[in-house]
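Appendix B. One record, verbatim.
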Amino acid sequence: MFCSHREVIVAGQKKKLSLTKGIVGGLVLGPLGAVAGGAGLGKTKTQFVCNKCGKTFSKLPHGSTIVG
């Protein structure tokens, strides 16, 4: 799962969508609440990529540094 290299770069971030939160937000705050709840405000997933071998990780590998 992990590689032996210790240099990673941030590949990107993705928003996490939630149908349940969108429905609850819509019931409580109307259409704007549905959009805000469904988009999962504050919920992002960061992907890391090894700078040497190209493996991807969902968590920063222990002892690694972010370069570039």
